[in-house]
Amino acid sequence: MGSYSILIGLSLAVILSYLFDVVARATKVPSVLMLLLSGIALRQAADYFDFTLGIPKVILEIFGIIGLIMIVLEGALDLKISRDKAPLIRRSFLAAALMLVVQAVVIALILHFWLHVNFQSCLINAIPLAVISSAIAIPSVASLQGEKQEFIVYESTFSDILGIMFFNFALQENFAQGASVFTFGRDVVAVLVVAVLSTAALAFLLDRIRLHVKFFLILAFLILLYSVAKKLHLSSLVLVLAFGLAVNNADQFLKGRLGRWFRPERLAEEVHQLRSITAESAFLIRTFFFLLFGFSITLSGLLSPQLLLQGVLIVAALTAIRYVYLRYIARTDLIPELFIAPKGLITVLLFYSIPQKHLIGEVSENILFIVILLTGVLMMAGLLLSKEQPEIGEY
């Protein structure tokens, strides 16, 4: 394939993704689903014409990691912190934490009794299926207003972060022992310290750099810090969230002596441009990740009745647990919150991070795709129902 043919293909992919976003706003069909289905269609066309394109798993992982960073940063740059937001943040954090743990444990028990595999391996495979994907949820709720939108943005972001932390905890050799709790606590303290220091350093650079090219330098430092923290088995997504929240709420944090080192009014100007660049980058990375992931799926592997049954049972269990929490514990609205818990980029990334010794043959990429597809359809239904609902007050 020639260079110009590749450029034509890449350009068409970006144009197609933009059109999908336009269609998604009008129809509430998530653009991610359309990208996945387009990837599958391209795979079928490639197979028909005997065209082979091998996609190394590492390419998907790189796109996924950068996409996750950009999407979480984009979401954080849209959130304002104030005292009146504290109850909302607590509710979203509690919802993300409780549902993540309960859903992961329930799916792990299903896998344990169904497949007779040790519980630790089952839990490691279950956690990716329980994490809400902010990469899908955040762009999809742009049409919602007020606390409903903010709740979903906070919940999905917290779910990503807590999911990575829970995943790292489950991977420990001394899992379910007292020492593992100590190790986990130590890592949490470490990542919080690194988050504060790295946020201060990046905010200082954003405020002081005068060169024309600086935003991608900041993003490069952010990706570097994320990757180094990840190599140290820290929940590095906290760094991204902390940086985005800090620079977007500089007036809340930079008071007193800190105002001498940082200028909130100057940061506010820079954040506007950073937000625009981050959104454009997130769109681009998300486009290629989901197209490539769809292309990596074989349609014949999706037509197994047993595979479909497993996917339906997993999604049914996830939805039932979410219903119980929202209805009887949080006592909040069900529409659209019940339906907006999509799986996606973070699910794939965590699945690819599972060590070989913990892989379960029956839990494959095809299962991931079925769960991603079904939760995407549920999210579409929730957004459509929300559109038909009359406007209601805060919950």
Automatic annotation (TrEMBL):
Keyword annotations from UniProtKB, A to Z: Antiport, Ion transport, Membrane, Transmembrane, Transmembrane helix, Transport
Subcellular localization: Cell membrane
What InterPro entries does this protein's entry cite? Na+/solute_symporter_sf
Q: Which GO terms describe its molecular function?
A: antiporter activity
Q: Which GO terms describe its biological process?
A: monoatomic ion transport
Q: Which residues cross the membrane?
A: 6-24, 58-81, 93-117, 123-144, 151-171, 183-206, 213-229, 235-254, 283-302, 308-326, 338-355, 367-385
Q: What is this entry's stated membrane topology?
A: Multi-pass membrane protein
GO CC annotation, single: plasma membrane
Quick check: keyword Transmembrane in the entry? yes
Top-level division of the source organism's lineage: Bacteria
Entry keyword Nucleotide-binding = no
Name assigned to this protein = Sodium:proton antiporter
Q: What is the lineage of its organism?
A: Bacteria, Pseudomonadati, Bacteroidota, Cytophagia, Cytophagales
